[in-house]
Amino acid sequence: MAHFQIKLFTQQKQFSVTDNTFSVPGSSTCTELNDLVNKLLSEDKDESTRSDFDFLVNDEFIRTSLVDHVETKGLSSESVIDVEYLQRKQAPELQHSFQQPDWISSIKTTEKFILTGSYDCAVTVWDRVTTKQLVCGIGHSEPVKSIELINYNADEKKQKISFVSTSQDQHAVIWTYNSSTNQLSSLFCCKGHSKSVECAASNEKKSIFATGSWDSTIKVWSSSVTPEEDTQEVINSSKKKFKSGKKSLTRTAKVTLPGHTEVVSALTWLNENEICSGSWDHTIRIWDIDTAVEKSHMRGMKSILSLDYSHLSRLVVTGNTDRHVRLWDPRSGEGAVVKCNLTSHIGWVTSVHWAPNDSHTLVSGSLDNCVKMWDTRSPKAPLYDLQAHTDKVMSVDWSLPDIVASGGADCKVFTFAVNTGAVDNVYG
Fold this sequence. Notes:
Radius of gyration: 24 Å
Strand order of the largest sheet: 11-12-13-14-19-18
Structural class: mainly beta
Strand content: over 45%
Distance between the termini: 33 Å
Helix content: under 10%
């Protein structure tokens, strides 16, 4: 088989080798390239410790032989091929698991706590380290569909966190948890949607949050934990009892955004004033909150179940009903095309989340019972399958760099420890 002339380089200076051109067989795979780099490292740095590396050509990982990769990318075999290498990410390790009474629809992690929403209408606060249940609250009369942190940064020193839960009961509820007294209090019931409220997302300053509903609208609400002009005190009806008390404070929306023709299934903020929505109407829409108008939209071929935005890569990732994970550039506007398809799931992709400190890495959860970790430079195969759930995965969260959490229809929460190491993968 023909040989290729390659030049090895890396962004990780601790692993740099001599800047020479090497002749390698076209049949070489990552195994042979690993052997070559480790041999060069042992010669240059007099080190016997072996490291495992991944290799990229044209910003895509080599997953087959070098000749197959070069032919697929349409490169010339007569030219010197630049091959980038970087230390391979270690597989996340299963850290903790704990059981709940019903399906877990949503999960969020903080430095100290794990928050879950479930189909038994409950929101629960857990100790992240010990996995002990700290407190459970009932503020809804139907299953909880999503949980989102609000005002967390402002209240951290006071041992308080605030969050919002949404439900099939058409409402969103704002909560505060005080860890010093272990008290969970429901503060406001946000009323205005006419059908199930499927998702919520707060802006970076946590000053406002948005909700998406089966009524095809998006509503924007204040995140304040103190009463405002839009607050009213009402007596609860027996039909939909707000179980944390006989009276509740209700809050009305600041802005309503109509435009979708099907359920608004997912929301993510691009910046303080722009929000991105995904819907079963196959569209991704970008909205200006100040003017309450749609700025642009991107149209896909299938219903969108979940989405998330990376401030590092500036890309939106979506989970879809055709089992694919897709990457979009929201700056492309109306003529946007899918930048990349990540293909491996065999069920609907119910939840996606970017890594908080990495422009290339994300996780996805699916009805195929599996959580997958992806590098966007390896579109045909995930980095790792995190196989722990025995039923549908309904929510994944990667809010902290060192932990991935997931919840599902097996009524279990799993956390996976991610080895962030000293290698910085935020470039490109």
